Amino acid sequence: MAEYNEIYARATYYDIALGRDVTREVVFVRDLFAKLAGRELGSVLEIACGPAYHARAFARLGVEAHGLDLRPEMIAFARDRANEDGVTVDLFAADMRAFRMARPMDAIVTMYDGIDCLLTQDELIDHFRTVGENLARDGLYLLELTHPRDTGFAEYGSFSYAGKRGGTEVEVRWAVNEPSHDPATMVAEVDVEMRIRENGQERVVRDRARERMYTAPEIVALARLSGKLKVTHYFGDFRLDQPLDYSEGARRMILVLRPTG
Q1: Residue 112 belongs to what domain range?
Q2: Is the pTM of the predicted complex or chain greater than 0.90?
Q3: How many domains does the chain have?
Q4: pLDDT tens across 57-75, in order?
């Protein structure tokens, strides 16, 4: 499993550049669960949560919220932000391939291409099995991934994020080395730069990690092989009426998985 250790360890700067309002996204998950399960959403786990944007937003809606991330720095940052928000979120550092909740969750979500750190099919199968073992029988698992139009096998694409808070400006430039995915492994070596401007000075933090590209059909097959989950729905945005297609309204690739049996 690959991680951007230099970038993710600087949680405050990461938050300045990549923070966003996720209210629409959590409302989508809440409404989708109610539609599929026929009851109100009671509990959520956000995997690879980083600053726990979604877990904190769920908590503000009155949902029991949990967040998991591999980086202790992110967990500490998210815990501070939850305290500032005045909400209770259970936050802990753990591996997304092997964790155990005290009781099954109604919904589990992995946002921002969080599964791309799982570099092999076996790793993703292990992850799906673990998710399935921690999901309620009528629960759902939601994956948010980059839309296929925005990335590809031969050309990864380039992405940048920027923000300002107080006197600090942060820009994160993803894939500055113009990587491509290895045709045999579907893994790309991706360089990232974090440019931090504060106190009249600029410094650059550089990082590199490997990322795995997964297609929707591959996720369907690997979920089936896990014996725990199956893909049931596809969306192109956080709207119940937006299918996964190449229309202007489809901005992301969102897959919904549910327990088998």
Answers
A1: 5-150+212-259
A2: yes
A3: 1
A4: 999 999 999 999 999 999 9
